[in-house]
């Protein structure tokens, strides 16, 4: 099974962002029909040479396009059928400039052999191709289920093919250099999908050199190349370098196309995504809104691209735990996508998935499950039960079951996700590593620490090989391994892995990112477990300073750190200080997440425990009963938190009855 997600996204990009140009879509005849059918609800037109049974002529194509001039793109389906002999190819070469002057997005759908034929025999025409999009034959893969060893060879990850060779092109004619740049760009796209980032960047730098020399630094293709290089750096987690190249893309694009061009809006969107990854949320929102203003002016308020930007803005609010605003923007995105793409479009499923994530973060697991299952239904229907996106849907559903304490059900869904990802993407793909990480977390919760470490170390091996030693996700996996050693009371090892995680995150994200605060919190927890309360408070205070500045004094993450500081004071017997910090945490959680959120209930449970240790049983019961009501409603009667609090209440009531 092959993942064509990137190819579909590229075609979507052409429809949403390109004003004009020639594009080659390489696929089998059956896959051509499947791909074009996927976009049937978009503003496109289709000219099928198979059904028309005719050779290519410019006049027929010009008349057809003129009859429907307002389409976003024109698919020439089965174009290989129009190429009967060399005379047709000469006609195609001759009409190249006339086709170009139509100023339309024309997508030539051809088989692989026909594309090679065009590249070799119709070079004048082919040199004008802006982009080549390759679709693997999903249909053949569905008909024949390959054994695991064969699928591994087709994997998007763990590619062992030789380093790509860049030819010496400096003396070639300019048109040949530009055609070669297109070929290198397509190779770079494949290498990026295989996580071979250094090789991809090397090819793209050659593309940049060609386009800068031939087209100049202010040409749209040059700007697009800066954007592509930035995207590779972003995938690696090298955010400062990504910003550097995105800013170059923005500058070149604005000079070439103007500040109001769709490509400029796309670059604003990409820059925003880097700021979001860095935790610079105000800057992210600023750039997303710049992108939104451009796209709304050019495309109107009901275009799918507007829905995508609403999705992105919602994601920033979700990262800041502003769930009301996140849902507001996700609902806007969903409305646009349902109206313009339909309720079964993959992009609509993405927004269902995003909405589910907000509900899950709010502790509304039943609602989260409802939306994740809607996303799964769309993915299975559109892409099939073996598609990587189906694996993602299973992974997300597993997360809900885990949050509810239904661990066996969670493991079942994680293993479904893992099976798909291993078969389709391979054993070394980062998404496979994500599922290893999730399964490891489940085993950690169960207390099966050896199994947890086994899976975390599988994930770490993938992260280090495919993403590099300094990728944020590699740091996250080190952090996760440390948490297992902490549970095992192997504190020296835990600190060693936390320090590695901290070094990676500080290098990539800087010293003020919320992720740094999270690791300080974790290091503090190790010192607390060892009774080194002064050291624990030192690290908790560092975490608090970062959270207050990066997230704000009213953020739930800040509240969580207050809760942790309270735990240290309680362990030291400073009950008044502990109660002060617990109540600060509870107030923040209540205001931001609501009284019925599980995190609020956890803090109330901690306050109850403090009153219990002070012998104030009535107060303890009140707080425990508040917590129990939330746990029961949000997590279910079998969740460990629910069981624990229920037992504490029974114990306290027995003490009250037996007290004199």
General description of the model:
With 660 residues, the chain is mostly helical. Among the domains are: 1-144, P-loop containing nucleotide triphosphate hydrolases (Rossmann fold), CATH 3.40.50; 169-299, Serine Threonine Protein Phosphatase 5, Tetratricopeptide repeat, CATH 1.25.40. The protein is built from 33 helices and five strands. The chain has helices at residues 5-17, 29-38, 49-52, 58-66, 86-94, 96-100, 112-121, 123-126, 138-143, 148-153, 174-193, 197-215, 220-236, 239-257, 262-277, 281-299, 304-319, 323-340, 346-361, 365-383, 388-403, 407-424, 430-446, 449-467, 472-487, 491-509, 514-529, 533-550, 556-571, 575-592, 598-613, 617-634, 640-658; strands at residues 21-26, 44-48, 73-77, 105-110, 129-134. It has a five-stranded parallel beta sheet, with helices on both faces. It is elongated. The N and C termini lie far apart (71 Å).
């Amino acid at each position: 099974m092959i993942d064509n997600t990137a190819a579909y996204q590229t075609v979507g990009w052409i429809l949403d962002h390109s004003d004009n140009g020639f594009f080659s879509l390489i696929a089998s005849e059956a896959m051509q029909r499947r791909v074009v059918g996927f976009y049937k609800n978009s503003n496109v037109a289709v000219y099928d040479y198979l059904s028309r049974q005719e050779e290519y002529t410019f006049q027929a194509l010009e008349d057809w396009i003129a009859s429907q001039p307002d389409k976003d793109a024109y698919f020439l389906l089965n174009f290989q059928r129009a190429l009967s002999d060399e005379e047709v190819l000469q006609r195609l070469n001759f009409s190249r400039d006339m086709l170009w002057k139509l100023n339309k997005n024309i997508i030539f759908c051809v088989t692989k052999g026909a594309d090679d034929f065009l590249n070799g025999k119709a070079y004048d025409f082919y040199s004008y191709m802006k982009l080549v999009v390759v679709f693997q034959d999903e249909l053949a893969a569905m008909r024949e289920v390959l054994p695991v060893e064969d699928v591994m060879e087709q994997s998007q990850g763990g590619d062992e093919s030789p380093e790509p060779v860049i030819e010496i092109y400096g003396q070639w004619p300019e048109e040949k250099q530009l055609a070669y740049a297109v070929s290198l760009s397509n190779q770079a796209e494949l290498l990026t999908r295989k996580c071979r980032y250094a090789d991809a960047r090397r090819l793209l730098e050659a593309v940049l050199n060609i386009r800068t020399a031939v087209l100049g630094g202010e040409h749209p293709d040059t700007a697009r190349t800066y954007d592509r290089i930035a995207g590779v750096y972003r995938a690696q987690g090298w955010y400062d370098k990504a910003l550097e190249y995105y800013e170059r893309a923005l500058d070149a694009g604005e000079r070439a196309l103007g500040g109001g061009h769709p490509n400029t809006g796309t670059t604003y969107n990409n820059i925003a995504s880097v700021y979001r990854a860095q935790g610079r949320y105000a800057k992210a929102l600023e750039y997303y809104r710049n992108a939104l203003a451009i796209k709304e002016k050019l495309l109107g308020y009901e275009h799918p691209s507007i829905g995508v930007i609403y999705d992105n803005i919602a994601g920033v609010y979700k990262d800041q735990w502003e769930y009301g605003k996140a849902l507001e923007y996700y609902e806007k995105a969903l409305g646009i996508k349902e109206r313009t793409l339909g309720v079964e479009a993959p992009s609509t499923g993405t927004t269902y998935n995003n909405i589910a994530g907000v509900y899950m973060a709010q502790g509304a697991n039943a609602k989260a499950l409802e939306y994740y299952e809607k996303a799964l239904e769309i993915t299975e229907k559109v892409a099939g039960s073996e598609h990587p996106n189906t694996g993602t849907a299973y992974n997300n559903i597993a997360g809900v079951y885990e949050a509810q304490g239904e661990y066996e059900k969670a493991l079942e869904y994680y293993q479904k996700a893992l099976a798909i990802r291993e078969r389709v993407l391979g054993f070394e793909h980062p998404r496979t590593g994500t599922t290893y990480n999730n399964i490891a977390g489940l085993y950690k919760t169960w207390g099966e620490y050896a199994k947890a470490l086994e899976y975390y170390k599988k994930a770490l091996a993938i992260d280090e090989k495919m993403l590099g030693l300094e990728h944020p996700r590699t740091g996250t996996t080190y952090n996760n391994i440390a948490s297992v050693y902490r549970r095992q009371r192997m504190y020296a090892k835990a600190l060693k892995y936390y320090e590695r995680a901290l070094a990676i995150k500080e290098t990539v994200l800087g010293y003020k990112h919320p992720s740094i605060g999270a690791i300080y919190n974790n290091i503090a927890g190790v010192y607390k477990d060892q009774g080194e309360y002064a050291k624990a408070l030192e690290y908790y205070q560092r975490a608090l300073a970062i959270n207050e500045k990066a997230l704000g004094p009213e953020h739930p993450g800040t509240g969580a750190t207050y809760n942790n500081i309270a735990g240290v004071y309680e362990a030291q017997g400073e009950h008044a200080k502990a109660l002060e910090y617990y109540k600060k945490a509870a107030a923040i959680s209540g205001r931001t997440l609501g009284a019925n959120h599980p995190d609020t209930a956890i803090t109330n449970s901690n306050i109850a425990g403090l009153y219990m240790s002070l012998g104030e049983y009535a107060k303890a019961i009140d707080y425990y009963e508040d917590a129990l009501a939330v746990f029961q409603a949000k997590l279910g009667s079998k969740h460990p938190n629910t069981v624990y609090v229920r037992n504490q209440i029974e114990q306290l009531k027995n003490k009250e009855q037996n007290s004199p």
